[in-house]
Amino acid sequence: MFPYFIMLIFCGIPLFFMELSFGQFASQGCLGVWRISPMFKGVGYGMMVVSTYIGIYYNVIICIAFYYFFSSMTHVLPWAYCNNPWNSPDCAGVLDASNLTNGSQPATPPSNLSHLLNRTLQRTSPSEEYWRLYVLKLSNDIGNFGEVRLPLLGCLGVSWVVVFLCLIRGVKSSGKVVYFTATFPYVVLTILFVRGVTLEGAFTGIMYYLTPQWDKILEAKVWGDAASQIFYSLGCAWGGLITMASYNKFHNNCYRDSVIISITNCATSVYAGFVIFSILGFMANHLGVDVSRVADHGPGLAFVAYPEALTLLPISPLWSLLFFFMLILLGLGTQFCLLETLVTAIVDEVGNEWILQKKTYVTLGVAVAGFLLGIPLTSQAGIYWLLLMDNYAASFSLVVISCIMCVSIMYIYGHRNYFQDIQMMLGFPPPFFFQICWRFVSPAIIFAQVHCRLPQNLLDFGPLRERNVLLHQLPQRRRVPSHGPLAPHTRTRNPTIRPAGQKASGPQPGHAHTYHAHSASSQATPSAPGSLTSSKPHPRPTVRPHDLITQSRAAGVWRCPTSAWLWSALGGRGTWSLAPGARRRRPGY
């Protein structure tokens, strides 16, 4: 837990604030913001790729939670006993009466010798067999797809339909839904916590959870896992933070939001750990074994160990319904943000009036594509592919993207320019701690992680095993809620990033302004208070990279002299847009 908090303080919160301020100032998605430096637009595409990968397999996890939720609507949980058709002879549940008898084995040993015959009893729990033999019907290897599990396919369709309906009107509809999906899990966690700590053996499980393993504190893998978990749980480098912040009011205090949300997310992760390990401690006490024997990881915790522990509670179907309903809500909150990130990036990139009016169809197209791409993950080998995507799309790649983003903003666009932009937007510069972290500490830590983990990632290709799927952090992978101050119903267009030396003459609070740079000597003309754009946008001229360095200082535009010089020195061709232009109001916002 110590590496987790260190990464939170020096990487998580600073980068969270950077992405929120980046998206809020630009009022653009993860692609449009890189007009500050077109040569780094690939970072935005990297965020889109990560969000696409995660969105595909994350909804499969939600569909499995749906399946368990529907299976819990019964008097007796189907994974409580071993008297089901799919159970093997090795099945032995904690609620089943076990009878072990002596066996005999013929042998003709030499004389004058004594022998000790020892045979290990292969025991599997009914919850594990329910997971492997019934829900997944797991194949032997990754290449044997087998058949598509129709029950999982149906649940996958249900989950995508729910996501689409909640996003049918963008953040205006999803923001209302997230009020429930972001708050009700706390109610369920509290109910499970109160029930868990009152069970016998709960204190043992909690102490196991809180006791650090100091002998592993110097291992690079521990710090790398902590960094990956911070980026995953906070949503850094996904593009979702930039997208959701782009719907903020220009003068919204995103510094306050970033600190509150980051600390709340961390506290929720710790709180969920108490809920999980109190139940596991009770289960270990019931079985008479150490907590480490039942504290599984991956799906073994979310879909095997914890469901098995719930069977020991009175009215176990009720507790199972609450637990999996909580997982569904947490997963949907993440999925809303992932899908909105992709849709917003597509709409911003095309940028014409037709696609603005047809955004619902874009959302439908992305949802249908995600459903079709998720079908292979519902096959008998789907869990192997889910493992592959989770290990290589949502861990090390997040660290690399964050590293490039931090360096490009601080050293290519320029830290002074960025600090002045934040001061114009918030009314005060970023605190000194964040300035130091952005310029030195966070990049150094991320560089160290890349240096230590890259050889390991290239060489560590062990066999794919179903039990290694990283799922035990599902209750902790909370995204920033897309409601409240982070997602107003309207998306305003605000002043673009200005060149160094220009006066910080931003719009006044309460007014939405649009600026157009129609010439090198153009004056920024604000629109009427409360409107999103001026009556008619001026045409956007283009200039060569060589001219951008000198001309950009005379206009309030997005510019990056360093990247322009690098682009020209590397032989870059083509034209750059001097100003990003105005975003028109979209239907439904």
From TrEMBL:
The keyword Transport applies. Coiled coil: none annotated. It comes from the Eukaryota. Disulfide bonds join 82-91. Pfam families: SNF. It is a multi-pass membrane protein. The chain crosses the membrane at residues 6-26, 47-70, 150-171, 183-210, 230-247, 259-284, 318-339, 360-386, 392-414. InterPro entries: Na/ntran_symport (IPR000175), Na/ntran_symport_glycine_GLY1 (IPR003028), SNS_sf (IPR037272). Its main location: membrane. Residues 479-550 are annotated as: Disordered. The keyword Ribonucleoprotein does not apply. GO terms for cellular component: plasma membrane. GO terms for molecular function: amino acid:sodium symporter activity; metal ion binding. GO terms for biological process: amino acid import across plasma membrane; neurotransmitter transport. Keywords: Amino-acid transport, Cell membrane, Disulfide bond, Membrane, Metal-binding, Neurotransmitter transport, Sodium, Symport, Transmembrane, Transmembrane helix, Transport. It is found in: Cell membrane. Na(+) binds at residues 233, 265, 330. Residues 525-536 have a biased composition (Polar residues). It catalyses: glycine(out) + chloride(out) + 2 Na(+)(out) = glycine(in) + chloride(in) + 2 Na(+)(in). PANTHER family: SODIUM- AND CHLORIDE-DEPENDENT GLYCINE TRANSPORTER 1, SODIUM/CHLORIDE DEPENDENT TRANSPORTER. Belongs to the sodium:neurotransmitter symporter (SNF) (TC 2.A.22) family. SLC6A9 subfamily. This is Sodium- and chloride-dependent glycine transporter 1. It comes from Rousettus aegyptiacus.
